[in-house]
């Protein structure tokens, strides 16, 4: 193997489809490669936070598949093991405004064994949210981990947005659905995983209002990611085939992770080729000068 190279890893948003990130993280573990920095948005922030905090990808898979095996097991965990009261999951801000509590959801998704603050993670972590009041991207690198993840997963109209520094923050996908631009500094290779896909098609031509709303967000996320990639592409861009799953299909965790296996193998091949090959194969040579062309 050549000298160690620093890798920046970006994990994008996509609701339940973001569980596919777990399979891609297994590629890093199986190659014994540790990213130098991780940036995560929405579900990518939750999965990335667990991994950056010290969980292996295998532990993450076991945790997700056990927690999300079915609704009954999830309820036992939430209301039994975690002793959560039903109303604690809701954010009530008026009779016409009932949302799931983003920070509480994040806290339930993050195992108790993890550090409480972003700056305490084993791998440097950047969590991407949208500062609603300032209408700009927020890169969270300090403070409570659950609050930051809760902000990044706060889907407008569905999950309540935590207040950070006196301002409302919402889903990071609104501004940066695949935040690979935040892992470029000081690294040799940038890897991005995009799980936005396209909205799931209805077999009967009908979709629920919530699925249409979230699907519309996915369309926006997808287009934004395409434009960013066209302007300044990362070195490796992986798109697991997760279009058959809805953004709310969390109880299909096992199937979603399994569907990402081909993308995992693709990532391993690309990492092997770019990191484990001879230096001459991965170093970009300078452009040939006019004089050199004439000599040739």
In words, what does this structure look like?
This protein has 296 residues and is α/β, with parallel strands linked by helices. It has helices at 21-30, 43-52, 57-67, 71-81, 102-109, 145-152, 209-231, 253-259, 261-275, 279-282, 290-295; strands at 7-11, 37-41, 90-92, 98-101, 125-131, 136-140, 159-160, 163-164, 167-171, 189-193, 236-238.
Strand element count? 11
Specify the number of helices.
11
- What is the gyration radius calculated from CA atoms? 20 Å
Largest sheet: 8 strands, mixed
Mean pLDDT: 84
Instruction: Tell me the strand percentage band.
Output: 15-25%
Distance between the termini: 34 Å
Please state the overall shape, judged from the principal axes of the Cα atoms.
globular
What string gives the helices and strands in order? EHEHHHEEHEEHEEEEHEHHHH
**Structural class by secondary-structure content:** alpha/beta
Question: Which ranges are low-confidence, i.e. pLDDT below 50, for 5 or more consecutive residues?
Answer: 94-98, 278-296
Helix content: 25-40%
Briefly say what this structure is.
The protein is an alpha/beta fold and 296 residues long. The protein has 11 helices and 11 strands.
């Amino acid at each position: 193997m050549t000298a160690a190279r620093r890798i920046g890893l970006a994990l994008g948003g996509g609701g339940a489809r973001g569980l596919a990130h777990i399979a891609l993280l297994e590629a890093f573990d199986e190659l014994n490669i540790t990213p130098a920095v991780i940036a995560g948005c929405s579900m990518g922030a939750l999965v990335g936070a667990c991994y950056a905090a010290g969980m292996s990808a295998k532990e993450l898979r076991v945790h997700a598949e056990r927690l999300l095996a079915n609704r009954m097991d999830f309820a036992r965990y939430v209301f039994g093991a975690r002793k959560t009261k039903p109303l604690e999951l809701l954010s009530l801000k008026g009779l016409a405004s009932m949302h799931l509590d983003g920070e509480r959801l994040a806290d339930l998704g993050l195992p108790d064994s993890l550090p409480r603050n972003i700056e305490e993670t084993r791998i440097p972590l950047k969590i991407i949210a949208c500062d609603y009041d300032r209408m700009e991207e927020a890169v969270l690198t300090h403070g409570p981990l659950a609050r930051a993840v809760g902000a990044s997963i706060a889907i407008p109209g569905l999950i309540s947005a935590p207040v950070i520094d006196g301002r409302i923050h919402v889903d990071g996908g609104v501004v940066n659905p695949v935040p690979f631009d935040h892992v470029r500094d000081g690294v040799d290779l940038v890897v991005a995983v995009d799980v936005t896909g396209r909205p799931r098609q209805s077999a009967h031509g009908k979709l629920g209002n919530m699925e249409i709303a979230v699907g519309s967000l996915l369309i926006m996320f997808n287009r934004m990611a395409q434009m960013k990639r066209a302007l300044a592409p990362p070195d490796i861009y992986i798109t697991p085939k997760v279009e058959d799953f809805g953004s709310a299909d969390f109880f299909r965790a096992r199937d979603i992770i399994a569907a990402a296996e081909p993308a995992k193998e693709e990532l391993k091949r690309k990492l092997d080729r770019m990191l484990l090959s001879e230096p001459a194969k991965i170093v970009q040579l300078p452009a040939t000068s006019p004089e050199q062309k004439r000599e040739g």
